[in-house]
Amino acid sequence: EVQLVESGGGLVQPGGSLRLSCAASGFTFSSYEMNWVRQAPGKGLEWVSYITSSGSTIYYADSVKGRFTISRDNAKNSLYLQINTLRAEDTAVYYCARGMGTFDYWGQGTLVTVSS
Amino acid sequence: EIVLTQSPATLSLSPGERATLSCRASQSVSSYLAWYQQKPGQAPRLFMYDASKRATGIPPRFSGSGSGTDFTLTISSLEPEDFAVYYCQQRSNWPLTFGGGTKVEIK
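The joint structure predicted for all components is written out below.
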């Protein structure tokens, strides 16, 4: 059974940093592209970042470019999102999602709250 | 950036009725469009991909159609578990984008 489990969310002050993790199991993680997608409270879905199976190609949404860094460790079956210089508008549930353009499996999400 | 516009924002229907959800793209996305269902407090779930292909485990009462800029998700006869928010999403161009969602609520 495919499982994606996010962790690392929490309350952080504006300008702060967090590192989100996504632990994958039930499939060959190193063979799949992965993404981060976020959802602000009561709002719709926003794609954040994408990384290829090898990590060689990475894309970001303009709203996070220069502040967020996606990475992966295939030996640990894990996906990461380093988020820096956090703003109030980054408050959201952050989901990791598998797939190249179409997200066929999602984690349950981890909540990031940016507030002083 | 490709903008996806979903309509209506809310659809109020009764169980057993037919639901028709629309997604319009600001430029052609070919058939690279997916639909997701999201229930309160849950992660989204893939329902349709490449416009008309049902994801694993999705019942045949769900169908998708369209290409280019106009797409439709149809639920032929609403079951109680179908009341949720539905999002369309394109993978034709970066950045990947989602529509604003259509909430299907019980009338």
